[in-house]
Amino acid sequence: HLASVQSSGNEGLKSEIVERVLDSNPLLEAFGNAKTVRNDNSSRFGKFIQLQFDTEDPTHAAFSGKSIPSAILAGSKCETYLLEKSRVISHEDEERTYHIFYQLLAAPDSLKEKFWDGLVNTDNQSFTYVGYSDTDSIEGKKDGERFQLTLDALAIVGVKDDKLRDLMRALCIVLQLGNMCFDVDPNNEENAIIATIEELDSVAELMGVEKDIVEKALTERTVTARNEVFKVPLNVEKAQDSCNAFAKEIYSNAFDWLVQTINNATCAENNYEENPSADFGMIGLLDIFGFESFVINRFEQLCINYANEKLQQKFTLDIFRSVQQEYEFEGIELGEVAYKDNADVLSLIEGRMGIISVLNEECVRPKGNDNAFVNKIYAMNKDAECLYKDRFFHDWEFGIKHYAGDVTYDANNFVTKNMDNLPDDLVNCKKKSTNTIVSSDIVRDTGGNSRARTPAQKKRPNSNSKTPASQKKSSRTGNTVWTKFKGQLGELMGKIGETRTRYIRCVKPNTMKQPRLMQHISSVEQLRCAGVVAAVTISRSAFPNRLEHEQVFDRFMCLEKSFVREASPTSEADEVIEDVKSLLSSVLKSVEVEKDGKIQQGFVCGKTRAYFRAGSLEFLENKRLHAFGDLAKDIQRVVRGFVAKSKYQRIRKKTIICQARVRCNASRSRYLKLRAAAI
Length: 679
Fold this sequence. Notes:
By secondary structure, the protein is of the alpha+beta class. Helix content is 51%, strand content 14%.
């Protein structure tokens, strides 16, 4: 929207940079969004987009007669967090994997053939990772139409020709790995062999690696012990896990490569020619996953909820500061404000003996396992009230009382997922690929930025130096998913802390994805999970209600007939405040309570508003309603009297007329009789 505004005012302003910025978001959606049960276009990763602006010097703007300095969009940068790699290999029946796979398979065969001839005459059901889907359009556009839009956007950021072919072939490698099947070796039941030779040939062809190298990387594991290196065959289950891990790693690598390419094409430092060395202003847009609580909550949910706890702490502090600033401005004591902090949950997760430390320690320990991890959490955090254990819990389950509610976590595979290390055999196989996207080593620093490592950077060991055991241990724990994500999150919170923050909460009104339908329970649950309920609680903690001074006079002067307002609306603030205090002290006399030997009134009067304690405004409104009832009775009495009197006067007037006519007729009759008798 901000980029569109930049280009809407002046047609000449829509530069190539603005166009790249506009098209980068749909690209990220194609590779990072998927259909879920609740949302057809759900973002399965977190992103922090930083729009860079070349801002005019305020002094120069003032001399030019501008009250607000101008700003020109110069570029953008994007940082991503926690791509849901598990969705690459599996998804629920009602859901889909990432959009790009469906778009690629919905493309015309003539276009598919340019990337890889094996895609010709294939559809979603041709590949295990994709499978059948009853949805072929997202937000009104078919997958085939969106693929052409994706190709156009890729071309704008410089991904075309050989780069485009490499990117699409990397996706084809992922698809083919999903079709690969393993069987028991007839010569040894504990070993696995690849049963689908055609799929193996396709993967080898796409990677540009010899078939034997790929086969051995997927079915064997190299082990080093006491300076001896030997090969250990994998069983069927472990070979399949190895294949899935390889697919996830290749897709993650392709995604990081795409983010890096987009950043290179849109960042102001590389593309803004007018003033490349400027100190750019920044508007950051954080779009990150919300709080999650499912029937089974795994490692990914704990990471997501940890991020939400950090953001909720920031949100709570911002709300508290806004209330604090308002109370200070109004001259109200700060002791009246109270709020619930989630520091105990954060301490449980990231403290010295918290979940992150224990899990990292378990990853380093020989034969570390998930059950031992759970036992250590409970042993080291006995006094943590936010950590709970139900008597029906399994040995691998633990519960945390988050700000949005209690969540039970299944710790199975926590250690494996936290290590997230690709075996050396697969790493070496990947490096031998002729596909530059597959073979490139995309390094992510703690700030979330990705960059490709050069061969010189990959080999920097010093043969003359020995690494102490403690440093080796630190290095291993530093490579865990938790440690990396904690570093990313720390830098993100630091950047957010330097900005003026605004919050936008998205609420899905119903689970059926239908318009004009509101499910109240679901909506309230989302508000609670988004921290809105907690924010309202903070703002209402001491004085739930507030009214401006003029509103107090307009609504409640009717409750005190003897009250005479001395100050006018244009009078000094002190005079208005005294009138408000006088009025409210009189009408709220009955709700005063004694606290700590002092009389506590039902209100506090600020400079511009009157703040009411819990129940005080309801009392006034109820009293006002009764007063209006009494006034209504008086009005009704007067109206009924007027109506009755008017009716009586009409009847009396008509009665007089009737009587006059009757008397007239009677007098005329007597007169005629007397006249006749006289004649």
